[in-house]
Amino acid sequence: MTQDQSTTVDDGATASAQESLAGTGTPAREGLLGILGSSVGRSLGLVVALVVLCGVGFATAGQQFASVDNVLTILRLAAVIGVVSVGMTFVITGGGIDLSVGAIVALASVWSTTLATQTLARDVHWTVMVLCALLVGVGCGLVNGLLISYGKVVPFIATLAMLAAARGLAEIIAQRRTQIVDVPGFTDFFRGSVLGVPLLVIIFAVVALLGWVLLNRTTFGRRTFAVGGNPEAARLAGIDVRRHTVLLYALLGLCCGIAAVMLVARTTTGSSTHGTLYELDAIAAVVIGGTLLTGGRGTIVGTVLGVLIFTTLSNVFTQNNLSSSAQSVAKGLIIVVAVLLQQRLATRSDTRT
Amino acid sequence: MSVETPLLRMRGIVKTFPGVRALDGVDLVVRPGEVHCLLGQNGAGKSTLIKVLAGAHRPDAGTVEWHGEPVTLASPQAAIDRGISTIYQELDLVPGLSVAENIFLGHERSTAGLLRRAETRQAARELLARLGHREIRVDREVGTLPAAGQQIVSMARALSHDTRLIVMDEPSAALDQQEVQSLFGVIRELTRAGVAVVYISHRLEEIRQVGDRVTVLKDGRTVATDLPAKATATADLIRLMTGRDIEYVFPARPTAPPGDVVLKVDGLSLPRRFADVSFEVRAGEIVGLAGLVGAGRSDILETVYGARRASHGRVEVDGRRLRAGSVPAAVRAGIGLAPEERKSQGLILDQSVYRNITVSSLDRFSRGGFLDQGAERERAEELSRSLDVRPAGVERAVRTLSGGNQQKVVLARWLLRDCRVLLLDEPTRGVDVGARSELYALVRSLADRGVAVVVVSSEVEEVLGLADRVLVVREGVVVHEGPATGIDEHRVLDLVMEGSVA
Q1: Is B216 a member of any domain?
Q2: Position with higher pLDDT, B392 vs B315
Q3: Which of A160, A310, B1, B62 has the fewest Cβ atoms surrounding its Cβ within 10 A?
Q4: Which three-class secondary structure state does DSSP give residue B300?
Q5: How many CB atoms within 10 Å of residue A107?
C-alpha cells in the first residue's frame, strides 16, 4: 500500500468539497496523528522507535553497542527471522496465518544436513543441500496451502498440525542429534561477505526487496490484497482464490527453506530444535509492522522494521546483561503498545460508520 | 390530534466527526404508539441519528427529551434502560446461541450466576407469541434461522426490555414481500400496545403502507417533519430528500431489434434450487427475472456465472459452451456479475476505487506479472468519469462511497473487461431513490452498446420498467416468459404467488 501514499492527501481535499453531492467521505486527515495514520507515517513511527532503541543501546552499552561488529551481529540475527517474516507478510495479507514456519525451518535444516552428513552423499555438491532445503520448505508450504484451500481446514488448525508433524519428522530424521555440517564450499560461501556486508544480510535484503516488488508491483501482489481484503468478492471478480492461497503458503514455505539454509550456515548445524518460536517472532514482527492480521493490508517495509526492532531490542538487553526473560516481557509490551497505537490511528480515520 | 407529551423530542442535534458534520441540527418528535418514518439519502445522517438515539454516539449539541424530561443517553445501556431499543441493519445476533439465549443476551435470567433455563425459554416463547411467531422454536440455533426469523428474534430481544421505542434500520432490506407483510403485522401489533416505532427504509411504498408520519433528513438537517405518510405525494418526498425534482425514470427502450443471441442458457438445473431453466439473451437486450427472494433468481444468476455448479444443462456465450462451475472461465468468456450483496460479495471495501475496478482485468495491465499502475489508474479514472462516480478520485476507499456509486464501481469493473454479458443481481438495493434513475439509464446505455443484460430484482416495478423481456420465476421454475410491455405489476405478483399461467 506504500505506493498509494503520494495522492491520498489531495483526495481528501477534493473529497470534502464534493461531500454534499455524494454522501459520506473520508474525514480529512490532519495533524501529527493523521500523519502517523498514513502508511508512510506508520513506517516513520517504526523508524523513530528503532532510532530511540539504538539511542538507548548506545547510552547504556556505548561503543560496545555501536561497533561495526555488533551492528553486523544484529543484522545477521535479523536476517534469518527476517526472511521468514517477509513470507509471513504475504500469508497474513492474504487473510491467512502460518504457525508451522519454525517447524518447517527445523525440518528443512535437518533434511538438508542429513544429505550432507551421509557418506553416500559426500561427493555431492553443496548446492544440492540448498536445493533440498528449499524443496522441503516449498513442499510443506504446499501441503499447508492445499489443506487450507481445497481441504477447507482453517489455517490455524492446518498449520498447527504441520507444526507438530514437521518438528516430529525432523526429530525422527535427526534421531534427536544435532548434525554438524563441515562441507567446506557451503560454509565458505554463506559465511562470506561482499564489501564487508555478510552474505546472510545480503540475502535478507534481496528477499525483502523481491518481496516488496512482488507485493506492490505485480498482479500476484494485487491479488493477494484482494483475496485478503474480501475473499468472496475476489472469487466473484474472477480470481482463483484457492490456487492463489496455495501459492501464498508455498511462497512462505520457500522463505522457510531459505531461512533454514541461512540458519545452517550461521550455526553450522542442522537440528530439530532450530526455529523454535519463529512463528511467534515472525507474526509479531509482521503485526507491529502494520500488516492487518485480518488480511487485506500489508507492508514489507513495516515487517523489515519490525524485525529490526525486535532483534535490536534483544541485542540491547544482551549487551546490558539482562535476562532473556526480561527481553520477552519487553517484547510483549512492544507488541501491545504497537497494536494499541495502530488501533487508535485506524479508528481515527474510520470514525463514521 | 390531542396535545399530548411526545415520547421523544430531539432538538438541534449536532454531531461532527473529523472533517465531517454528520448531523447539523436535527429535530425529531415521536409520539407514543406511532410509526414514524425517517427518510433520507445515504449520507443524510440517518445512521448517525440512530446511533445517537441508541446511545452509541454522544451528540456535540442539542437536547433529547424523553417523556418530556431532558435526558442524556450516555451509553447503549442507558438507552436500553430508558426503553429505547435499536434493531440494526446488520443484525447483531450471536449465530451460535439459541433463540432464547439471544433474546436475553446481556440480561440473562439467573440466580447467583446460574441461568434459570426453563424460565428463560418460557419467557422467550411468550415474547415470540406476542409477535405472532409461535412457530420459531426457542432452542433453535439462531444461525440456522432465515433472515426473517432472525429479525423476529431481534424484535423479541427489543421487547424483552421494557421497550417504549423501537428503532428499525432498513428492516425490510433482507426480506421478501411476504415476510415484509408479516413484519408490518408485527409492527401494527406493537403500536397497538403503545410502543412507538422509528422506521427507516428506502422503499416509499412501504412507508405508505406502515407509516403514520414522516420526517425527512437531508445533509444532516431536518428538512421536513410531521408529513402524513399516506397522503404526501411521492414527488414531494423525493424532492425533499434530493433537493431536486426527480422521479423514477426508466430509459426508453430502443426501437431497433436486438442483435444476435449472446447468452444461451439451456436446461440449467441445480437440485433443490431451480430446474430446467432455459432462456436466451441477445446483444442489446435486457432480460428481467422477477420472483420472490428464495425463488431461485439469484441462484440462476450465480450458476450461469459459474459460482455454483449446475447438475444439468449448459451455458453458452456466443455459441461456445462454458465449463460448469468455473468463475474464471465465465469471466474469460465475457460474463460479469454485480452480486446481490454488494458490500460482502462485490467489493473490497477498504481498497481504493481503482483497485476495485481493475481487479478483474489485472492481466491487461501487466507485462510479465508486473503491473503498470499508471495505466491502471488512468483507465480507472476514465471509466469512473464516464460513469460519473462521485466523489471523483480513484484513490479513495470504496467504503466511503454511497451505494449507487459503489454499484457504478462494480459496473466499471466489467466495462473495463468489455464484457459481453452483464448479470445484475438487485442492482439498486441500498441505492438512493435519486440515484436509481441514473443507474437505470446507465444499464440501458450498456445494452445499447451491445451488452446482453440480465437483471434480477425484488421490485417488480424495476424489472418491468427496465427490461425488454421478463421471466417470472416461482419455486425454481420459470412460469412465464414474455415482453415486459405485455404484462403489468399485478399480473407478475399473481404469477409469483400462484404460479398459474392462464
Answers
A1: yes
A2: B315
A3: B1
A4: helix
A5: 34
CB of B60 less than 8 A from some CB of A: no
Mean pLDDT for B36-48 is 82
| Cell numbers that stand for B271 in this block | 437440485
- Looking at the predicted structure, is the pLDDT value of residue B437 above 80? yes
Query: What is the torsional sign of CA B155, B161, B166, B167?
Result: negative
Q: Looking at residue B301, what is its pLDDT?
A: 94
Nearest to B390 among A11, A21, A235 (CB): A21
pLDDT of amino acid A38: 58
Closest listed residue to residue B425, CA positions, set A242, A236, A231: A236
Q: Are strands B261-270 and B421-425 parallel, antiparallel or unpaired?
A: unpaired
- Which one of A222, A243, A345 makes the best mutation probe of the B interface by having the most chain B beta carbons within 10 Å? A222
CA–CA min distance B35, chain A (Å)? 25
Within 11-70 of A, beta carbons closer than 8 Å to B belong to 11-12, 14-30
In the three-class reduction of DSSP (H, G, I as helix; E, B as strand; rest coil), residue B286 is classed as strand
Q: Are residues B192 and B308 in the same domain?
A: no
* Model confidence at B432: pLDDT above 80: no
Model confidence pLDDT, tens digit, residues A231-246: 999 999 999 999 999 9
Q: Name the H helices within B131-176.
A: 147-160
Q: For residue A9, what pLDDT is reported?
A: 35
Same domain membership, residue B303 and residue B223: no
On whether residue B253 sits in a domain, the answer given is no
- Decide which of B212, B242, B272 is a domain's last residue: B242
Q: Up-side HSE of residue A288: CA atoms within 13 Å toward CB?
A: 25
* B-chain residues near A353 (CB < 8 A): 47
Q: How many domains does chain B have?
A: 2
Give per-residue pLDDT as tens, A179-217.
888 777 888 888 888 888 899 999 999 999 999 999 999
Domain limits for position B404: 261-498
Q: Is residue B413 part of a domain?
A: yes
The answer to whether the Cβ–Cβ distance between A222 and B362 falls below 8 Å is yes
Residue B499: pLDDT over 60? no
Determine the pLDDT at residue B384: 92
Range of the domain at A122: 79-301
Q: State whether B143 and B209 are in the same domain.
A: yes
B220 shares its domain with B337: no
Looking at chain B from residue 401 to 420, which residues have their Cβ under 8 Å from any Cβ of chain A? 401-402, 405, 413
Q: Residue B284 falls within a domain, yes or no?
A: yes
Let me know: does B131 contact B159? Beta carbons within 8 Å: yes
